[in-house]
Design a protein that fits this description.
Elements: H1 6-9, H2 16-25, E1 44-52, E2 56-60, E3 65-69, E4 89-93, E5 104-107, E6 113-117, E7 124-129, E8 133-139, H3 146-158, E9 162-168, H4 175-188, E10 193-196, H5 205-212, E11 216-220, H6 227-235, E12 260-263, E13 269-272, H7 285-291, H8 293-299, H9 316-322, H10 328-355
Helix pairs in contact: 3-7, 7-8
């Protein structure tokens, strides 16, 4: 790499927190001192991952965005315990050579992360890291799927970041449609801010910018929901490819194929993600309680501490459903998500037993 510009890194979110985290890794930026991850006198430089590819990542160093491998036949990869994600702050070797290529040798501890159940295996997959805000995106050109919104909000709350629901394509909906959707969202997410936007008409972008500030946000939503159009509108340039949706079902065509971190002139950053048809829940107890506070509160009064709310005597949650204080649809949604998490935990336990 050609160097690191700390001031240039600030447009990617570098601040005092990351300066402290970087010093704790044991590296000196621009000096001749210690290197990260036990690499002796090898110098490293900080950077932020803007895109992850198969065995490499695009890393912003403040001067440029360049490619660094995160898996390599050399011993230097020992500093990386797992693949980096978009939004990660990393240490990259400073003195790369053709025989010893640029490599990510350390990933700074994550403050927040979006984690889902990897659809290909019984493992966690980190979609994005170190964001302060999660934009749960829903297009106003399609019916509201309450269960899907709840699922994404569980992952958003569990990440440790602040969720915000973003309704896109306001130019395709009337005021009555928006009002009905607001009312529905107030029932399933009363504590979550809702922002109505249109990337075509630049509607709601100032409000969304106020929510973001100089922070980093990740966008979650299905294909065709308008995430990339929203990113382009906030950047003020065509930085993400967009495409039309099918007229029959408003489904998108996955024009975004990787997770990309894009800096804004305002100082904030956006992490665009591919459309998620399936987003499996990992271990997200805190997120589940955040999305279903009425169930979490009622559960405190159950007779048994380990009550599963599925027929046990003295279950305050089931009593709440029967008395109408907890909605039937909400309870059914909670049961599905809770069951999914329990199934993941059971599979992990079985795998752990087989390894013993």
């Amino acid at each position: 790499m050609t160097g690191t510009d700390i001031e240039g890194l600030r447009r990617y979110g570098w601040d005092e927190r990351w300066e402290v985290a970087w010093s704790n890794v044991g590296s000196e930026v621009g000096g001749s001192g210690a290197a990260a991850a036990g690499l002796g006198a090898r110098e490293t430089r900080p950077g932020r991952v803007v895109r992850v590819e198969r065995i490499s990542a695009q890393v912003a160093t403040g001067i440029d965005v360049e490619t660094a491998t995160w898996t390599t036949p050399t011993a230097h990869a020992a500093g990386v315990a797992e693949p980096p994600a978009a939004g990660d702050w990393v240490g990259v070797l400073d003195d790369a050579t053709p025989e010893d290529p640029e490599a990510i040798v350390a990933v700074l501890p994550r403050v927040t992360s979006i984690v889902r159940h990897d659809p290909g295996q019984s493992a966690a997959q980190v979609l994005a890291a170190n964001m302060e805000v999660v934009f749960v995106v829903h297009g106003l050109d399609r019916p509201l799927n309450e269960a899907r919104i709840e699922r994404m909000l569980v992952i958003a709350w569990d990440s440790g970041a602040e969720p915000t629901i973003v309704l896109t394509k306001a130019d395709l909906a009337g005021p009555d449609d928006v009002g009905r959707l607001h009312a529905a969202l107030a029932e399933i997410a009363p504590a979550v801010r809702v922002v109505v936007t249109s990337g075509v008409e630049d509607h709601g972008l100032d409000e969304l910018g106020d929510v973001l500030g100089r922070r980093t946000a990740v966008l979650l939503g299905e294909s065709g929901s308008g995430k990339s159009t929203l990113v382009n509108a906030m950047v003020g340039a065509e930085v993400q490819t967009t495409g039309a949706v099918r007229s029959g079902d408003a489904k998108g065509r996955h024009t975004t194929t990787a997770r990309d971190l894009v800096p804004l002139v305002s100082g904030g950053c956006l992490i665009d993600t591919p459309g998620l048809r399936g987003i499996g829940i990992w271990h997200a107890e805190a997120g589940l309680d955040g999305v279903f506070p009425e169930i979490a509160a009622a559960a405190q009064d159950c007779r048994f501490r380990d009550c599963h709310h599925s027929g046990e005597p003295g279950c305050a949650v089931q009593a709440g459903v029967e008395e109408g204080r907890i909605g039937v649809r909400r309870f059914d949604s909670w049961l599905r998500l809770r069951g999914e998490m329990d199934a993941v935990a059971s599979r992990q336990e079985q795998q752990s037993r087989r390894r013993r």
